[in-house]
Amino acid sequence: MIRFFLLQNKQGKTRLTKWYLQAPDDHERIKMELDIHRIVVDRDRKFTNFVEHQNFKIIYRRYAGLYFIFGVDVNENELLLMETIHLFVELLDQFFSNVCELDIVFHFNKVYALLDEFILAGEVQESSKKVILERMADLEKIE
After folding, report:
1. Are 62 and 43 a contacting pair, CB within 8 Å?
2. What backbone phi and psi angles, to 5 degrees, belong to 45?
3. Residue 91, CB half-sphere, CA atoms under 13 Å: how many?
4. Cα(134)–Cα(128) distance, rounded to whole angstroms?
5. Do the beta carbons of residue 8 and residue 66 sit within 8 Å?
6. What whole-number distance in Å separates Cα of residue 112 and Cα of residue 108?
7. How far apart are CA 48 and CA 34, in angstroms?
8. Are 113 and 38 in contact (CB under 8 A)?
9. CB–CB of 115/126 below 8 Å?
10. First vs last Cα of the chain: how many Å apart?
11. What's 126's DSSP letter?
C-alpha cells in the first residue's frame, strides 16, 4: 500500500504531498520530508531508486528538477511503483502540455484531482491514461 506521495524540487521544497495513511503532526511531517529529501538527493546515481527507511520503503524518480517520491509498505513491488511514477509524469505532461514546476505550483488543485483519479486510498485505481485524461476533461467542463 502507498503510504504517501511527495513531490519535491532539488532544493528540498515540497511542492505536493498526499498522505494515504494518517499524516504525522506538522513537526514530524516536516522532519520526515527533510530526511527523505536528504536521502534521495545524496544517494549516488549508480544505486537503485528505492531504499528502506524506518518501517517503509522510499521509491523515487527524478524528472528534470523534481523528485517524485512514494513511501510504501516494505513488501510492495518496487518496479511497479517506478512504473506508477512514470505513468503519473506522463499524465501530468499530457494534461499540462509539457509540464513544468510552475504548472504544479499554480494549478495544484488540478494536480491533486489528477492524482485522485489515478490513486485512491493508497492503491492504483485506474491505469489507463486515456480514461484518466477523459475524466479530467469532464471535470474541466464542469468548472
Report:
1. no
2. -65, -20
3. 29
4. 10
5. yes
6. 6
7. 20
8. no
9. no
10. 32
11. -
Q: Rounded CA gap, 36 and 51, in Å?
A: 10
H/E stretch holding 127 reads none
pTM of the entire predicted model:
0.92
Using DSSP, state whether 79 is helix, strand or coil: helix
> Is residue 54 helix, strand or coil?
coil
| Residue ranges of E strands in 20-97 | 50-53, 56-63, 66-72
- C-beta of residue 108 within 8 angstroms of C-beta of residue 16: yes
Question: What phi and psi, each to the nearest 5 degrees, are found at residue 44?
Answer: -65, 140
Cell of 106: 499554480
Quick one: which of 98, 35, 104, 120 has its CA closest to 66?
A: 104
The yes-or-no verdict on residue 18 having pLDDT over 80 is: yes
The 10s digit of each residue's pLDDT in 89-128 is: 999 999 999 888 999 999 999 999 999 999 999 999 999 9
